[in-house]
Amino acid sequence: MTSIEIHDEIHTQLHETARVDYRKPIIHNASVPVLYEEALKYEKGTALTDSGALVTDSGTKKGRSPKDKRIVDEPASRNDIWWGPVNTQMTENAFMVNRERAIDYLNTRERLYVFDGFAGWDPKYRIKVRVVCARAYHALFMNNMLIRPTEAELASFGEPDFTIFNGGEFPANRYTTGMTSTTSVSINFDRHEMVILGTQYAGEMKKGVFTVMHYLMPKAGVLSLHSSANEGPNGDVSLFFGLSGTGKTTLSADPNRFLIGDDEHCWSDDGIFNIEGGCYAKCIDLSPEKEPEIFAAIRFGSVLENVVYDHASRKVDYANSALTENTRCAYPIEFIPNAKIPCVGGHPSNIILLTCDAFGVLPPVSKLSADQAMYHFVSGYTAKIAGTEDGITEPQATFSTCFGAPFLVLHPMRYAEMLAAKMQEHKADAWLINTGWNGGPYGVGKRVALKYSRAIIDGDIATREKLAKLFVEHFVSYADKASKEVIAAGPQV
């Protein structure tokens, strides 16, 4: 299929399924240079930095709006969904009102952008995702965050499995049933669609796709996880669980290990696979000394959100939080030099639970038994970090089950039971790492530097067997007078 034929097919699909006006320019899977040019020409607040990244502004919303997330209550998915504060019900009619409002807005724009990509690196489980939006910034963001199709894959893409209509520049009607503000992020599993109104924050699209995978994958027997993952030289895989700001992205970008992904993964019968085609790193206080891999990834093709920069030199001031604490950069995963492409790996041998303890009570590292691992996984204790959500300005202690409650669709125990079974089957070790405060709570103590957390992880996991053997060998001299209980309390090699 030629590019013209692909273009015509998309025009037809969009017009027939959503009555999108196809008489205007619809820019489909444009190259990075084209999207740069479009953003610089048509979007206020967009510029180039001295490193070649595109810097842009997400408008009023600088983080996700979880209280405005809705899922349509419809017969096919009703009995599966974990209804409550995380998954608030929405009527089919209210969804269609929002959908109509978003498409009406998109039809008023002079040009539209469409990006077709995949979620999930394993071809057996990946889904086809289509994004329809009015900002080149949003198209470039999803070009980085979804898995980019080859020319052949794009030619045979066909109908998407899921479509995002992003009309985020236009507000929701507050008088629509179920709306609590002018922001609405709504998902309809029956229609395989997501509609965004009242927020231009690109992270809503990323997490919307993640939410969809949290619904679809367990139903296919695959565990979806809010985690990063990397692989050692010998093929050993580690999973890092944690909410935004706990160090998932930084700790997984280890120069001595291969990066599988920084945020969203699935664990199938074959092993681990990344959901995304890129990384979404926090940039506050970023430096080449602290996070060299991430710093170097901010170049031509990357999207910087809401950072402060010098308008003459175009140099970014990563320490400046005047716009938000939640400064971000989205870049293709191949921008990390040691990324493993394709982003798949074997079964994990280490499960690392990252927690940002704002009280400064938890130790920097704890080895967990299987039962303790499940307890902490279900508890998901951490602190919300400033900027990760709208309105959060300083750390707040919270419990986020499965280290990702805002994105869960099914009941948390569904994911927890799947994780327990996989850990047992593949004999994975579990660790609790505190990347929060040490020596006292927030305001008194000091936050554990991520370089120390990485050293702890590398040291504890890599040398635990060696140290355990030294303990056992040393204790042999005293074993004849020691009770069975005391001997059993030592390391088990």
Automatic annotation (TrEMBL):
Keyword Membrane in annotation: no
EC number: 4.1.1.49
SUPFAM superfamilies on file: PEP carboxykinase N-terminal domain, PEP carboxykinase-like
Pfam family, one: PEPCK_ATP
A Gene Ontology biological process term: gluconeogenesis
Pathway membership: Carbohydrate biosynthesis; gluconeogenesis
Alphabetic keyword roster: ATP-binding, Decarboxylase, Gluconeogenesis, Kinase, Lyase, Nucleotide-binding, Pyruvate, Transferase
GO cellular component: cytosol
KW Transport (keyword) present: no
Any one GO molecular function term: phosphoenolpyruvate carboxykinase (ATP) activity
Domain of life: Eukaryota
Catalytic activity annotation: oxaloacetate + ATP = phosphoenolpyruvate + ADP + CO2
Recorded family membership: Belongs to the phosphoenolpyruvate carboxykinase (ATP) family.
PANTHER family xrefs: PHOSPHOENOLPYRUVATE CARBOXYKINASE (ATP) (PTHR30031:SF0), PHOSPHOENOLPYRUVATE CARBOXYKINASE ATP (PTHR30031)
Protein name per UniProt: Phosphoenolpyruvate carboxykinase (ATP)
Organism: Blyttiomyces helicus
Organism lineage string: Eukaryota, Fungi, Fungi incertae sedis, Chytridiomycota, Chytridiomycota incertae sedis
